[in-house]
Amino acid sequence: MARLESLLVVVGAAAIAVGLTRKPKPDHGPKCGPADGPRRVVALGDSITVGCQYLKSLKSTLPPGSQVRCYAYGGYGAEDIAKKGLAKAIAWRPTDVVVLAGVNDMSSDRPPARIVKAIRKMLSAAAAAGARPIAIGILPWASYRRSNARRQAGTAEINRALASTPGVCYVDPVRLSDGAGGLRREFWGGRRGTDPLHPNKNGLNLLGREIKRQAF
Which of 33, 53, 171, 188 could connect to 136 by a Cys-Cys bridge, CB 3.0–4.6 Å? Predict the structure, then answer.
């Protein structure tokens, strides 16, 4: 399995590199465009992806017969998400692979370049398997207690790197932002709406609509 995963990453990197020579469609980034027929969309992520709510929201907008699936691991960083779920996600034979990861890495002070490398590994494997690689930027989290200016600068650096990755469709989560780097107050999660890291159902549904608007 490890040998197969390595091969997928190498082939995927080449496929993404080809994206440099392709002119993107208007209003879409590389590899973005309307959904054509039923889709099989899988998401790889951390606790924000647990429950698959944003993909459930996305599914309601996709062609009939579309399916969604999530491999999500609370508290995991990008490298561990790849180790735990990447092979499973690819084995499902998806048409689209969504990756939302990195906030746990940033709150643990891992170097941004290392985080980007781990996320790109998953995206490359998706491309190698014939799926569309879709990267969601790290969601706004400046209001969380473990946030600080340095970690927010690293978050911005990661999102810029993902947005500029050739051959990858990038979904900008800016509509979830309060304008100051934090999650909009009405989207705070938790039982009493006191969690500024994990979006509530309304916030996740908006994220699903943003994936549809920007990537399909």
Answer: 171
What confidence category does residue 31 fall into, taking pLDDT thresholds of 50, 70 and 90? low
User: What residues make up the domain containing 172?
Assistant: 2-16+40-215
The pLDDT score that the predictor gives to residue 201 is 98
Residue type, 169: C
Residues 6+ apart with CB under 8 A from 85: 44, 71, 72, 73
CATH number of domain containing 116: 3.40.50.1110
Mean per-residue pLDDT, 127-153: 97
CA distance 18 to 14: 6
Q: Is there a domain that residue 133 lies in?
A: yes
Query: 19 with 153: CB under 8 angstroms?
Result: no
Q: Is residue 26 part of a domain?
A: no
Please, which residues have CB within 8 angstroms of residue 122's CB and are 6 or more apart in sequence? 44, 78, 81, 82, 86, 97, 99, 101, 133
Position 50 in a domain:
yes
Global confidence as pTM: 0.86
d(CA 171, CA 157): 15
**Domain count within the chain:** 1
| Residue 175 lies inside a defined structural domain of this protein | yes
Residue with tokens 């050739």: 166
Closest of 122, 120, 126 to residue 82, by C-alpha:
122
CA-only gyration radius of the chain, Å: 16
Backbone angles phi, psi at 148, to 5 degrees: -150, 175
Alpha-helical (H) ranges within the chain are 2-18, 53-59, 78-91, 103-107, 112-128, 149-163, 201-215
